[in-house]
Design a protein that fits this description.
By secondary structure, the protein is mostly helical. Helix content is 53%, strand content 10%.
Length: 516
């Protein structure tokens, strides 16, 4: 039976053993042209028009330049990408999985864990947040009959072309006008939906090109201001009939005075110093600050997780902005998980197990749960468990505590009977057996003792509580209440309550001795 991809196309085993780009050496010899050099609004529009028509080479290189040359932009994109590396992940079988499907998920997890530097795979995939897409080439190998992935190579975006008006199609550039289709099972093709639209226009960096351009202008003008700020204007005067050599000598002296504060000039010439140049840095700082805040809003969803201005940077607003970052993280990793399920997990399953149906293939899942605070969770569950049956599975998932294996050592109460009394099901205390049943019987005896001797506790407390309550109601001040309290306590009749408690204590002591 032939091996096919999820679209039913047959997989040629020979093509898996050699990367598709190995035959396209001319791609690796292309030189980057650095479109950010001499960037103008007109040049940006030409680059975008070429990308819309299918040639994304200049756009991809411009985006790389932007991230490399703008430290703030590079930092924000790095934050967003690296946030995914803080999460755990697992390969999960489908719902109602059979034993074969569960074993397939376990095998695929072992194979993925064995991929060298797999964290870099996730990081490189999220390059698509800024660029719109990211392609990683798989290099397959075999150990016996088992297919595994030896290496995953990230390929620059300027190696590819996008047909005009395409939403998902990406082709590898070659000497033809239409390019090559990507080999099935040969690539991880991640298209990141940072926003809707045509593939060539979907990257966040497309929205930030104008901001990058404005910040570049502001930095250039600010640098010129710093270069001349505080320097006096030097005006050289030469006599009528001066030769070109004398004029050049005077110009050199004027220039030298600006930096070295020293120079010589011929007799009959003079240098006049005018008032120092004036200027303010405020407009340039405002422009650069606005650009950086805009970058933060677009990339990480807010500004207060990136910088503080001393005015709006309150703790409450910072927490709100951080929640937005969490939402972006969840969205990012779910998209990455879907791509890895399609382009990595499914090929490994098809080549190494009996799985052929994409709907029954294992899934790549990131752990995006927000675990409960153990202290508050324990308090809440203790209260709710008295009125609601709470599944132990839910408690394990909410706290992130793994379910212990049957023979695994666990932390818990010293007395197993105590643990058994906290749960209504037998699995909470494996192996307790007779001791658990015995402790439940003891618990019933004590409950009966309490019910018998403390069932009518209100009438017993009234002779003690009522006189104190009446004194508190009638006292004109705290001092008056305190002065009369000793008299009231001396006259209280607590005989009935004392006798009842003494009897209960005696019986409880007898129950304890009987167990000794």
């Amino acid at each position: 039976m032939a091996i096919v991809d999820k679209h039913g196309k047959p997989i040629v085993a020979e093509k898996l053993t050699k990367p598709q780009t190995a035959k396209l050496g001319e791609i690796e010899r292309d030189f980057t042209i650095h479109p950010a050099d001499g960037l103008t609004p007109g040049k940006v529009m030409r680059i975008f028009k070429e990308a819309d028509e299918g040639d994304i080479t200049a756009q991809a290189q411009l985006f790389s330049d932007m991230e490399e040359r703008d430290p703030h932009l590079g930092s924000e994109l790095s934050k967003r990408r690296r946030a995914a590396l803080t999460l755990g992940w697992s390969i999960e079988p489908p719902a109602n999985a059979s034993s074969a499907e569960k074993k397939a998920a376990e095998l695929v997890q072992e194979l993925i864990v064995s991929i060298p530097d797999f964290e870099d795979v996730i990081l490189n995939m999220l390059n698509a947040v800024g660029q719109g897409f990211s392609c990683l080439e798989l290099e397959w190998g075999q150990f016996g009959k088992q297919w595994n992935i030896d290496t995953v190579h990230w390929r620059p975006n300027d190696w590819f072309m996008v047909p005009t008006g395409s939403l998902t199609e990406i082709r590898l550039k070659d000497k033809s006008e239409v390019g090559q289709e990507l080999n099935p099972f040969g690539w991880i093709k991640h298209i990141h939906k940072a926003r809707s639209g045509y593939l060539a226009r979907s990257g966040l960096l497309r929205s930030l090109a104008g901001v990058y351009l404005l910040k570049g202008f502001a930095i250039t003008e600010f640098s010129e201001l710093l270069d001349i700020y505080g320097h006096p204007v030097r005006l050289g005067k030469y006599s009528e009939g001066a030769t070109d050599k004398q004029k050049n000598t005077l110009l050199q002296a004027v220039t030298t005075l600006g930096r070295k504060a020293a120079g010589i000039i011929p007799m009959g010439m003079e240098i006049e110093f005018k008032e120092a140049a004036k200027g303010k840095e405020d407009p340039f700082e405002f422009a650069m600050s606005w650009c950086e805040k805009t970058v933060s809003k677009i990339v990480v969803g807010g500004t207060l997780t990136s910088q503080a201005d001393g005015k709006s940077s309150t703790n409450a607003l910072g927490n709100v902005h951080n929640e937005v970052r969490k939402d972006l993280l969840v969205s990012d990793v779910r998209q990455v998980g879907s791509t890895l399920t399609r382009d990595l997990v499914y090929p490994l399953s098809v080549l190494n197990t009996t799985i052929t149906d994409p709907r029954r293939a294992p899934r790549f899942v990131f752990d995006v749960r927000e675990l409960a605070d153990l202290a508050s969770f324990a308090t809440g569950v203790s209260t709710l468990s008295t009125v609601l049956p709470i599944p132990a599975k839910w408690a394990y998932e909410t706290t992130g505590i793994p379910v212990p294996d049957e023979d695994e050592a666990v932390l818990g109460p010293v007395n197993p009977a105590v643990a058994a009394s906290k749960f209504s099901h037998k699995k909470a205390c494996p192996g307790c057996g007779t001791a658990t049943a015995k402790s439940e019987a003891d618990h019933d005896d004590v409950d009966g003792l309490v019910d018998e001797h403390m069932g009518d506790w209100k009438p017993l407390l009234e002779p003690v509580i009522n006189p104190i309550q009446e004194l508190a109601n009638s006292a004109e001040s705290l001092e008056a209440f305190r002065d009369d309290l000793d008299k009231i306590v001396a006259e209280l009749d607590s005989t009935a309550l004392t006798d009842n408690l003494a009897t209960a204590s005696f019986i409880a002591s007898g129950v304890g001795d009987g167990e000794g």
